[in-house]
Amino acid sequence: MGRTFVTVITCAARGDAGMAYDAATYSTVLFGGGNGNVLKPTVVYGDTWIWRDGWFQKSPAASPSARGGPGMAYDPTTGTVVLFGGYSVDLTYLNDTWTWDGVTWTQQFPPASPPARSFNSQEMAYDSPTGTVVLFGGYGNGTVFGDTWEWDGKAKTWTQKFPASSPSPRGCALAYDRTGGQIVVFGGDNGGADCCRVYYGDTWTWDGITWTQQFPASAPSARTDVPMAYDPEIGKVVLFGGFNVPGQGLSDTWDWDGSTWSQRQTATKPGGRWSPAMDFDWVSKGLVLFGGELTGDPFANDTWLFIPIR
Fold it and tell me: Which of 16, 17, 28, 89 could, after both became Cys, cross-link 277 (CB 3.0–4.6 A)?
């Protein structure tokens, strides 16, 4: 099926925002984001927006504190969007858990939680076979994580998993592949400074028990801070952009069919960028991509839809 990107103008420029499609309210939810401490002073946002063929700001009675880099995913077992962690304006890493019910945010107080961290791309996704939201990796307090956690929305608990094999510690791209029935992880980096960062180009899948490295015939180049989401209209996981040279965003599009990656050519596309928010919006019937950091380090406030060619 032919698909391309179209652009829409939207709210304040930022990267590292959390995004998830809320099936209970038929809307895509965006929370927070910031400038990643790239520009001074550091800026983070604490606003909640929903996408319904345009952006609309919400004013909930309660809300997480302003932050960049939160993880977000929709949990159909409770009909809520789950948010975890991020970084505050003073670059303190957070490990609080919140849920969005379409009207307001509610803080949850599980007996155990993952260590504080933030994410530069989507690293949480609902895993249908286990009925849990899976979290992997991230960065926090001088640590790069390689741990795997599951959020049970009904029990309101986080549980750490100890798989026999696992990707190395990293920030990475993560999405649930509905066709294959598995979580997919691609690429990422080791959290090093620009001088010594290691970029990854490996692909892993999670079957609810362990991680298994895949060896596809073709794959995107190694990269980090890349958005990734499942597109049910084409039955594939889609990846866009990221970077593997500091300050230079990529603008290529790839999709994963369960066994290999294929590059997808589009008539139009966003400019090169990293750390945008992206998820599939069932109302728009396409992926919604918002913001991110552009080549040369400015932040974007444009919205793109990855939709069928009409």
Answer: 17
The β-bridge relationship of strands 277-281 and 243-245 is: unpaired
Look up residue 109 and give its two tokens.
Answer: 């107080």
Half-sphere exposure of 71 (CA within 13 A, CB side): 33
Cβ atoms < 10 Å from Cβ of 271: 13
Cβ neighbours of residue 230 closer than 8 Å, sequence gap 6 or more: 175, 176, 177, 178, 236, 237, 238, 280
Cα–Cα distance, 16 to 18 (Å, whole number): 7
Kindly report the pTM of this predicted structure: 0.94
- Exposure of 171 in the CB half-sphere (CA atoms within 13 A): 30
Dist CA 208 CA 129 (whole Å): 7
Query: Exposed, middle or buried, 89 (CB in 10 Å: 0-12/13-18/19+)?
Result: middle
- Tally: H helices and E strands in the chain: 0, 27
* Per-residue pLDDT reduced to its tens digit, 87-109: 999 999 999 999 999 999 999 99
CB 3 within 8 A of CB 286: yes
DSSP string for residues in 244-310: EETTEEB--EEEE-SS-EEEE--SS-PPSEES-EEEEETTTTEEEEEEEEETTS-EEEEEEEEEE--
DSSP string, 145-205: EEEEEEEETTTTEEEEE--SS-PPS-EEEEEEETTTTEEEEEEEE----TTT--EEEEEEE
Residue matched to tokens 């640590």: 143
Query: In this predicted structure, what is the pLDDT of residue 1?
Result: 58
**Beta sheet of 211-214, edge-to-edge order:** 171-177, 182-189, 199-206, 211-214
Identify the structural domains of the chain with CATH numbers, from first to last.
3-308 (2.120.10.80)
Of 283, 284, 277, 223, whose CA–CA distance to 254 is shortest? 223
pLDDT band, residue 310 (cuts 50/70/90): very low
